[in-house]
Structures are given as C-alpha cells and as structure tokens.
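Troubleshooting entry. The earlier prediction with calcium ion gave an output that would not parse, so I re-checked the input for stray whitespace and re-submitted. Clean input:
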Amino acid sequence: MAVFKKCLVFLLVLLTAFALQIIFFSPISPDILELPLTSPSASVPPSNNQLQKVIKLGEGLLEGPEDVAVDEDGALYTATRGGWIRRLHRNGSWEDWKKFESNTLLGIATPKRDGLIVCDADKGLLKFTDDGVTVLASHVGGSEIRFADDAIEASDGSIYFSVASTKYGLHDWTLDLLEAKPHGQILKYDPSTQHTSILLDGLYFANGVALSKDEDFLLLCETFRFRCLKYWLKGESKGKTEVFVENLPSGPDNINLAPDGSFWIALIQIVPQGMEFVHTSKALKLIISNFPKLVELVQSGVKKKATVINVAANGNIIKRFDDPDGTVVSFVTSALVFEDHLYLGSLKNDFVAKFPLK
Ligand SMILES: [Ca+2]
Ligand SMILES: [Ca+2]
C-alpha cells in the first residue's frame, strides 16, 4: 500500500511539473479564436471548381510567389522564396530582375514611378529599382518592424503597409494563430520625411492592403477575424474604421483593386477541417504550443484549397472561384486583375496561375 501511495505522489508531482512547464514556458498566452459561422451565408456564393481551369505561368521557376503586381508597361512581378524578384514581360519571357538575400519576401506593389515596393517579413519595407534595393522602413516608434506583409502606394507617394504580427515572425505564424491575439498593425511611410508611423493597432493578423479607386479609403484584411476593414482617408468619416466584409468562409490574405473599382481577395484556409476544436480550448492550445510536432499537425492540410472572391466597393460579394481540393492550384494568397484575366499568387505553388474572366 505504501508503495502504491509513493507511486501516486510521484505521479502527481510529475503531472504538476508537466502542467507548470506548459503554463510557464509556453511560447503563447492564448485566447479563443472565434471561427466563422459554418452555416452557409446567403451573401457568400457556393464553392465551385472554376479555378481548375487556370493556365500555369513560369512553372518550376517561381517558388512560393506570394503576391503579384503589374507595372505601367504590363510587366508582371512576383517575389519568390529564394529572394528573386522575377518579372514576366508582355512577350512571354521571364526575367530574373533582382535578387535579395531573403526567404521572407511577401506582398509587393508597383509604385507610380519606376521599381517595386516589397514587404520583407524580416527586414521591413523595401524598394527595388534598376539601381538596387533601399530599405525604406525597418523601425517604427523605436521598435523593429518584424512581419511586414503587404503594401500599397497612394498617389501622393505615401505607402500604407501591414505588419501581420509584432510578436511572431513568418515562420511562427501558427503560434500567432494559436495565441489569437491582435498583434497586427497598419503603418504609413511618408516619403517627404522618410518617417514611418502607426496608423492602426490591435489587428488580428493584418494582411493584404488596397486603396479604393478614388483613394478615399484603405482596405485591410484581418486574416484571423475572417474579415476586411475599411479605414477612411478622406471625407466626414476620415480616420474612422468600419467593417467592409465579414464572416468570410476562410481567412483573407492579399487584396487588390480591380479596374472596375471592385476588389479581389484571396482566402486562405487557416483552420483545416476537423481541427476546429483546437481553437476553442485555451488549455489545449497551451499544450500544443509546447510541442513543435503538434503545432505542425494543427496546420497540416491547410494548403490544400484555393478560393478567391470578388467584392464590390460597397462590400457585397459578387463572385467566387475555387479549387476546392487544390487539384490544380492551392493556397492561393493573392488575386490581381489585368486585361480581363486573374493572376494568382500562392505560397505553395511554383507558378503564377492565369485565369480568364471572360
Ligand atoms: Ca500587394
Ligand atoms: Ca499576404
């Protein structure tokens, strides 16, 4: 009996130590993640397999081309995992335009004048020109910019860009998701003073940014809230933020203005089917975060779908295209309209997908 008691005490001590280890040394301090309503919403068109019709551009040449942008001459740019900025000329030839020592290049935007604006999740806001690369912003308010995600330039030269998380980097984005706290920001870079300031704080993974046709508002995607917000830049509501579109079927990534004034948003699956329960328990999240293999498991299977939506300037969802099981394209992170075609970037594919809209 005494032996049994000793064993029990030993087991209790072990369990307490395990619990303390998990609570005090966990890399996260989690909150519950509010998942989108699972009942089909009347405002979201049904899933389809339209995206299986895409044409693959630059296949094998482009590793994880997260975002796409087109310049005045119709050249299409993308930044790859190997740090290459590659561009596709109108004649169909790909050019290795610039190389940067980085595997964390994300959102890009073509400025009014030459070059390319690029977000690097390690270095901040960069600008590439034929002459080389300049770091436009690496700090804000004395702190390093850790996870710059996407940028857009206004006609006055100001650059609005997102910071997905001030706490975790690109390679730890799953921890940020498990923590489910608002570590995201929108920053503004002023070219006349070269100063960067915080425009918005407390966002749930601030991702894609886009300006409206008249530049009267800025749209920003809050991936972990399954919604996009509208921040007014002009008019009576200037400085105010409101919901643009919400309860999306998955997390919005990059967003782009279309020539007709509507927006194209790529939706990424951040919670794989069957894993929803993980996000409803803080205790479970604490345990998982201590074991990298479990963190991997929570995210396994997220890259198997592709969904893009077209949203009117008033927030109504107009169209939806999917590859529901990622047969041809998967983990599409951006959608851009150029001359009646959609160009799709992806963190998983090794090509840019082209999809005819007409
Ligand atoms: Ca972009
Ligand atoms: Ca992004």
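This one parsed fine. The chain has one domain: 49-168+183-269+305-356.
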